[in-house]
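[Q] Does anyone have a clean structure-token version of this?
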Amino acid sequence: MLNNMKSTIQEIRSELEINVDEKTKQSYQRFFKKPVKYYGVKTGIVRKIAEKYWQAVKKLNKKEIFSLCEMLYASDYCEETFIVSFWIPNLTDQFEPTDILTFERWIKKYINNWAKCDSFCNHSVGNFIEKYPELIKELKRWSKSNNCWLKRAAAVSLIIPAKKGKFLENVLEITNQLLLDENDMVQKGYGWLLKEASRRHQQEIFEYVVKNRKRMPRTALRYAVELMPKTLKYEAMRHD
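[A] Here you go.
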């Protein structure tokens, strides 16, 4: 089985290599402050490759699929980590409460830029939390971590539920914990979360931002009010 898994990984890598797009390759790094590893394959093509190989991978048990995902993560290539992000949501029906520990380990060990963090957390961890809402307590624990990607993950894992109007109280509790964080990746993460929560809870988010605008970093504040009407946006961002 291990040899078959390694063969699958090699086939995926070969397919990524032959689908490198020169324009994408040349512009890829500009989206990141620090150097990242990448092939230079368009996201749509990566998705198609992920879907193609999922047809074979889905026959494996969850433990074996997780092992394949870890092999992809270990390469550090962005596109390989995106394949993990396309695969894991397909396992939502098989999620168990202890899977959150695996997800946490992956974030701590392999996530090192915003794209890897968001692509994995938005749907994989987001689906998990919607299935096991009582485990939002784990996200709250992440928000107190010294690892900036785990802190961003605490926020962006609630993006999809927040769009649906869910977990407002928890959204604000996690935001409170992250409010004064100095890392702009964390600030943008919880600012984005507030923005998505404002779709269904505009007044509550507006009141929260106004209450905290003197302390909230402007980066986070700008994200948080992005969807609000101009009058509310102006009021939230003005200096007293």
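[Q] Thanks! Anything notable?
[A] The chain has two domains: 1-94, 114-240.
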